[in-house]
């Protein structure tokens, strides 16, 4: 794809998101706040469906994972122990002329401003954590941080969860929640922002089983993206080289997605070794080791982490689903994640058709998110639903009045079948794959 086509597609997707209520710029009436976005009526449904499928895959379909919801603000020593205070930094330099700030690398030779060619200052480390104060007095001892990853809330609760659930290794703890990073170069819509949501799972294992579990989680997580309907050809794994590894990992893979702006990370899968639990044991003075009754051994477990971004997954689903056809724009979202599952229309606004259609709407509503529409031609109503990704539409027409049948139209093929009104629920449940 040429560069212009790329930005064209992103511009069209951003515009569709705003126009149809997927995603709005944050604080728009005040000219917006850079890199912050609000999910509108459709966006919030899509997001909840994605998170729901992740939660189900982790904590319901597997018997070895518990859930957790830890607080965003944590004791400041957590970040000392985790290494984020020291190591979670970007190297930056300022332009002495235009004052713009840039990310640089240790070995970078060209130290001139990419914007104006001016001289750059010495590079310095800039910590990406947002800092604030707890309580009414702003002094050194009251500094706390907004968490840059949800993982630490899991580590500090490792023994709590293990004890109450009476878990033996291997087992996992899953969590979905907000994380914050003062990114230097946010951008590409919701791809890189300063406030975002993560779906993280920490799997506690014996040291000699860590490698095997890393392999197994790599495969399992790739499979999960396929179940979201993302094309296999748009997903790949990338193994970190030694200098790409985060400070806590001995081995890491990224699941990457082919976005319109190129291959980019969707999820990180890391072997975090015994780094985090050892550090928290040392810094808190609390023993976070695990006692294995069979071998009578006490040790610090290794951790295999799967760390996915909710917003990036949502953007991957949207960009993967977006298609332009001759006379329509269509979001080919998987029915499981589509915000609205069924559109229900009377062909015309007379002859009792609206009343029958509204009855069908009432019957379907407890099972699915549905949308009733009687405004403008039925062709336009189909197009409106295609553009937001609604997989099925049910239409009441003159034949309904004669034999109680309706049409069910499928979004991608546009094929319509006829079925009896009392068959609609079962058919829709089967097609959509469960009641979500
Ligand atoms: N606990 C490990 C961890 O946080 P990471 O690779 O830094 O690892 C994991 O982040 C995932 O979180 C990324 O793959 C991405 O999906 C998401 N993510 C990270 N930074 C983000 C940002 N600034 N905006 C949106 N999503 C982000």
Structural commentary:
It is found in: Cytoplasm. Homodimer. It is a single chain. 32% of the residues lie in helices and 28% in strands. The chain is an alpha+beta fold. Among the domains are: 40-78 and 149-319, BirA Bifunctional Protein, domain 2 (2-Layer Sandwich); 340-432, Rossmann fold (3-Layer(aba) Sandwich), CATH 3.40.50.800. A hairpin with a 6-residue loop joins strand 4 and strand 5. The longest helix is centred in the N-terminal third of the chain and has 20 residues, at 41-60. The mean pLDDT is 95. The structure holds glycyl-adenosine-5'-phosphate. Glycyl-adenosine-5'-phosphate (GAP) binds next to strand 10, strand 13, strand 16 and helix 9.
